[in-house]
Amino acid sequence: MNNTYSFIGGAHGPWRVDGMQAVTGAGLDAVACLDVVNAPPAQLHNKGTWLLHGFTSNVRYAVRDEVNALKGIQQGLNRPASTCAALIPIKKTAAWWALAQDERRAIFEAQSHHTAIGLEYLPAIARQLHHCRDLGEPFDFLTWFEFAPQDTPAFNHMLVRLRASKEWTYVEREVDIRLSKRA
Questions:
Q1: Which of 58, 120, 144, 154 has the greatest CB tally within 10 Å of its CB?
Q2: What is the pTM of this model?
Protein backbone atom coordinates (compact mmCIF):
# COMPACT_ATOMS: atom_id res chain seq x y z
CA MET A 1 0.00 0.00 0.00
CA ASN A 2 1.31 3.43 -0.98
CA ASN A 3 1.31 5.79 2.02
CA THR A 4 2.39 8.87 0.02
CA TYR A 5 -0.22 11.53 -0.71
CA SER A 6 -0.09 14.62 -2.92
CA PHE A 7 -2.33 17.63 -2.31
CA ILE A 8 -2.71 19.56 -5.56
CA GLY A 9 -4.07 23.09 -5.36
CA GLY A 10 -5.25 24.39 -8.71
CA ALA A 11 -8.20 24.73 -11.08
CA HIS A 12 -9.34 21.09 -10.92
CA GLY A 13 -10.22 18.56 -8.26
CA PRO A 14 -13.14 17.09 -6.32
CA TRP A 15 -12.84 19.63 -3.49
CA ARG A 16 -13.88 23.28 -3.96
CA VAL A 17 -11.80 25.75 -1.95
CA ASP A 18 -14.21 27.85 0.12
CA GLY A 19 -11.50 29.82 1.92
CA MET A 20 -7.78 30.03 2.58
CA GLN A 21 -6.33 31.84 5.57
CA ALA A 22 -2.71 32.26 6.61
CA VAL A 23 -3.08 31.77 10.36
CA THR A 24 0.64 32.21 11.11
CA GLY A 25 3.37 33.08 8.63
CA ALA A 26 3.09 33.05 4.86
CA GLY A 27 0.03 31.69 3.11
CA LEU A 28 -0.27 29.77 -0.14
CA ASP A 29 -1.36 31.08 -3.54
CA ALA A 30 -5.14 31.15 -3.88
CA VAL A 31 -6.65 28.26 -5.81
CA ALA A 32 -10.20 27.22 -6.77
CA CYS A 33 -9.95 23.47 -6.15
CA LEU A 34 -7.96 20.77 -4.41
CA ASP A 35 -7.22 17.22 -5.44
CA VAL A 36 -5.85 14.60 -3.05
CA VAL A 37 -4.00 11.83 -4.83
CA ASN A 38 -2.53 8.71 -3.24
CA ALA A 39 0.70 9.00 -5.24
CA PRO A 40 4.09 10.75 -5.01
CA PRO A 41 4.64 13.93 -7.08
CA ALA A 42 6.86 12.13 -9.62
CA GLN A 43 3.84 10.11 -10.76
CA LEU A 44 1.56 13.12 -11.28
CA HIS A 45 0.69 14.70 -14.61
CA ASN A 46 -1.04 17.75 -13.10
CA LYS A 47 0.97 19.61 -10.47
CA GLY A 48 -1.46 22.53 -10.19
CA THR A 49 -0.61 25.96 -8.84
CA TRP A 50 0.98 24.39 -5.77
CA LEU A 51 1.72 20.86 -4.67
CA LEU A 52 2.25 19.57 -1.14
CA HIS A 53 3.04 15.99 -0.31
CA GLY A 54 3.48 13.86 2.74
CA PHE A 55 3.18 10.33 3.99
CA THR A 56 1.09 8.57 6.57
CA SER A 57 2.92 6.75 9.33
CA ASN A 58 2.53 5.30 12.77
CA VAL A 59 0.89 7.39 15.50
CA ARG A 60 3.50 9.50 17.27
CA TYR A 61 3.50 11.30 20.64
CA ALA A 62 0.73 8.98 21.88
CA VAL A 63 0.87 6.30 24.55
CA ARG A 64 -0.90 2.93 24.17
CA ASP A 65 -4.10 3.99 25.98
CA GLU A 66 -4.41 7.04 23.71
CA VAL A 67 -3.77 4.99 20.56
CA ASN A 68 -6.42 2.47 21.65
CA ALA A 69 -8.91 5.25 22.42
CA LEU A 70 -8.31 6.86 19.01
CA LYS A 71 -8.71 3.55 17.16
CA GLY A 72 -11.83 2.72 19.15
CA ILE A 73 -13.64 5.97 18.30
CA GLN A 74 -12.23 7.44 15.11
CA GLN A 75 -13.98 6.61 11.87
CA GLY A 76 -12.35 6.58 8.49
CA LEU A 77 -12.27 9.17 5.76
CA ASN A 78 -14.55 9.32 2.71
CA ARG A 79 -17.82 9.00 4.62
CA PRO A 80 -20.77 10.07 2.43
CA ALA A 81 -21.98 12.69 4.96
CA SER A 82 -18.52 14.28 5.22
CA THR A 83 -18.86 16.86 2.48
CA CYS A 84 -16.68 19.42 4.29
CA ALA A 85 -12.95 19.20 4.71
CA ALA A 86 -9.96 21.19 5.87
CA LEU A 87 -6.33 20.91 4.91
CA ILE A 88 -4.11 22.54 7.52
CA PRO A 89 -0.39 22.56 6.69
CA ILE A 90 1.78 23.34 9.72
CA LYS A 91 5.47 24.10 10.20
CA LYS A 92 6.92 24.12 13.70
CA THR A 93 9.85 26.21 14.90
CA ALA A 94 13.47 25.14 15.15
CA ALA A 95 13.03 25.36 18.95
CA TRP A 96 10.38 22.61 18.77
CA TRP A 97 12.64 20.29 16.81
CA ALA A 98 15.55 21.01 19.17
CA LEU A 99 13.54 19.50 22.04
CA ALA A 100 14.00 15.85 22.94
CA GLN A 101 11.13 13.47 22.14
CA ASP A 102 9.99 13.32 25.80
CA GLU A 103 10.00 17.14 26.00
CA ARG A 104 7.85 17.40 22.86
CA ARG A 105 5.50 14.74 24.25
CA ALA A 106 5.16 16.70 27.52
CA ILE A 107 4.17 19.85 25.62
CA PHE A 108 1.98 18.00 23.12
CA GLU A 109 -0.11 16.11 25.64
CA ALA A 110 0.69 16.81 29.29
CA GLN A 111 0.52 20.60 28.81
CA SER A 112 -1.55 21.06 25.63
CA HIS A 113 -3.81 17.97 25.81
CA HIS A 114 -3.72 17.63 22.02
CA THR A 115 -4.96 14.02 21.86
CA ALA A 116 -7.50 14.51 24.65
CA ILE A 117 -8.99 17.53 22.86
CA GLY A 118 -9.16 15.65 19.56
CA LEU A 119 -10.90 12.68 21.20
CA GLU A 120 -13.74 14.95 22.31
CA TYR A 121 -14.64 15.63 18.66
CA LEU A 122 -14.63 12.02 17.45
CA PRO A 123 -16.19 10.36 15.58
CA ALA A 124 -17.77 13.41 13.90
CA ILE A 125 -14.44 14.80 12.71
CA ALA A 126 -12.19 12.34 10.89
CA ARG A 127 -8.49 13.16 10.66
CA GLN A 128 -5.39 11.92 8.88
CA LEU A 129 -1.93 13.29 9.60
CA HIS A 130 0.67 13.37 6.84
CA HIS A 131 4.34 13.82 7.75
CA CYS A 132 6.51 15.86 5.40
CA ARG A 133 9.37 17.35 7.44
CA ASP A 134 11.84 14.75 6.18
CA LEU A 135 10.80 15.25 2.55
CA GLY A 136 12.16 18.78 2.24
CA GLU A 137 8.65 20.20 2.04
CA PRO A 138 7.77 23.74 3.19
CA PHE A 139 5.64 22.30 6.03
CA ASP A 140 6.28 19.63 8.67
CA PHE A 141 2.73 18.25 8.75
CA LEU A 142 -0.31 18.25 6.50
CA THR A 143 -3.43 17.56 8.54
CA TRP A 144 -6.52 16.50 6.61
CA PHE A 145 -9.94 16.66 8.28
CA GLU A 146 -13.35 15.57 6.97
CA PHE A 147 -16.72 16.28 8.58
CA ALA A 148 -20.39 16.89 7.87
CA PRO A 149 -21.54 20.51 7.40
CA GLN A 150 -23.39 20.50 10.73
CA ASP A 151 -20.10 19.66 12.49
CA THR A 152 -18.35 22.82 11.24
CA PRO A 153 -18.95 24.74 14.52
CA ALA A 154 -17.47 21.85 16.52
CA PHE A 155 -14.47 21.72 14.19
CA ASN A 156 -13.92 25.47 14.59
CA HIS A 157 -14.17 25.12 18.38
CA MET A 158 -11.60 22.33 18.36
CA LEU A 159 -9.19 24.54 16.40
CA VAL A 160 -9.66 27.44 18.81
CA ARG A 161 -8.78 25.15 21.72
CA LEU A 162 -5.72 23.65 20.00
CA ARG A 163 -4.43 27.03 18.83
CA ALA A 164 -4.69 28.39 22.39
CA SER A 165 -2.41 25.64 23.72
CA LYS A 166 1.30 25.83 24.58
CA GLU A 167 2.06 23.57 21.62
CA TRP A 168 0.92 26.31 19.21
CA THR A 169 3.57 28.71 20.52
CA TYR A 170 5.93 26.49 18.51
CA VAL A 171 4.04 26.93 15.21
CA GLU A 172 5.78 29.31 12.81
CA ARG A 173 3.59 28.72 9.77
CA GLU A 174 0.00 27.52 9.48
CA VAL A 175 -2.50 27.78 6.65
CA ASP A 176 -6.18 26.91 7.10
CA ILE A 177 -7.77 25.75 3.84
CA ARG A 178 -11.53 25.08 3.99
CA LEU A 179 -13.15 22.88 1.38
CA SER A 180 -16.45 21.42 0.29
CA LYS A 181 -17.04 18.42 -1.94
CA ARG A 182 -17.99 19.39 -5.47
CA ALA A 183 -21.21 17.92 -6.85
A1: 144
A2: 0.91
Single out the residue of 164, 167, 24 nearest to residue 95, CA to CA: 167
Would you place residue 60 in the very low, low, confident or very high pLDDT band (cuts 50, 70, 90)? low
At 14-42, the pLDDT tens digits run 999 999 999 999 999 999 999 999 988 88
* Whether the Cβ atoms of residue 68 and residue 55 lie closer than 8 Å to each other: no
Q: Would 126 be classed as within a structural domain?
A: yes
Q: What is the spatial distance between Cα 9 and Cα 159, in angstroms, rounded to a whole number?
A: 22
Q: For strands 141-147 and 126-131, give the pairing.
A: antiparallel
- For the chain, helix (H) and strand (E) counts, in that order, are 5, 8
- Residue 3: CB atoms within 10 A of its CB come to 11
Domain total for the chain?
A: 1
pLDDT at 62: 61
Instruction: Give the integer Cα–Cα distance in Å for 49 and 29.
Output: 7
